[in-house]
Amino acid sequence: MDQISAAGVAYNQDLTHKTILVGDSGVGKTSLLVQFDQGKFIPGSFSATVGIGFTNKVLTVDELKVRLQIWDTAGQERFRSVTHAYYRDAQALLLLYDITSRSSFDNTRAWLTEIHEYAQDDVVIMLLGNKSDMASARVIRREEGEKLAREYGVIFLETSAKTGLNVDEAFMTVAKELVRRSVQLPIEPRFHLHDLMEPEKESSGCCGFS
Ligand SMILES: Nc1nc2c(ncn2[C@@H]2O[C@H](COP(=O)(O)OP(=O)(O)OP(=O)(O)O)[C@@H](O)[C@H]2O)c(=O)[nH]1
Ligand SMILES: [Mg+2]
């Protein structure tokens, strides 16, 4: 059912946008989703994701309800073919690297090549430099991330799943871009970070792999 937004555009609020988190193992995909979904960070032991699961969230963009179905994937190489299968009908992809890991940044080019090979041409892509709280261990300068994002024409932010820096902003930016593209808005819709709705946890699923 179309809803007319404050910007005077019609947007179908029943749409659910498949959004996938990708990037090397250990960059913080699961931690970023837990921070966004539950507002918490579980420090310490790292348990690599071995399956794939999703969380549903509803955000408010320009008084419109935007439904994201956010899939967390396993970054380990051995699960890569599984991840490919999820790219096909994704409307948005958040590609993470770890600002303390040169290899995770260098591998983003390979991830972007895979995305262009397996995902839809109009998929929204965000490049996120995660762990920005680890300033003393930083090896990737923000400028390097910005330069790569400009080269590939994707949106860039640095985030911290630990402090929450830019985590809501990252998902709100994706939601705003999805609305803009689905209504071909000539103008940027306003969005209100503060009125991010409480998550309507309609369901979350998982299909772990043994
Ligand atoms: N300081 C800091 N540590 C983080 C941050 N994000 C994740 N971590 C830590 O980094 C490790 C890996 O985080 P995960 O979220 O499990 O990484 P992942 O990308 O899901 O890894 P895979 O599931 O193997 O693909 C964990 O020990 C986290 O606590 C962050 O923003 N800051
Ligand atoms: Mg994980």
Automatic annotation (TrEMBL):
Its EC number is 3.6.5.2. It is an enzyme of class 3 (hydrolase). One of its GO terms (molecular function) is G protein activity. The keyword Nucleotide-binding applies. SMART domains: ARF, RAB, RAN, RAS, RHO. The keyword Nucleus does not apply. Its cofactor is Mg(2+). Keywords: GTP-binding, Hydrolase, Lipoprotein, Magnesium, Metal-binding, Nucleotide-binding, Prenylation, Protein transport, Transport. InterPro entries: P-loop_NTPase, Small_GTP-bd, Small_GTPase. It catalyses: GTP + H2O = GDP + phosphate + H(+). Pfam families: Ras (PF00071). It comes from the Eukaryota. One of its GO terms (biological process) is protein transport. Belongs to the small GTPase superfamily. Rab family. PANTHER family: PTHR47978. This is small monomeric GTPase. It comes from Cyprinus carpio carpio.
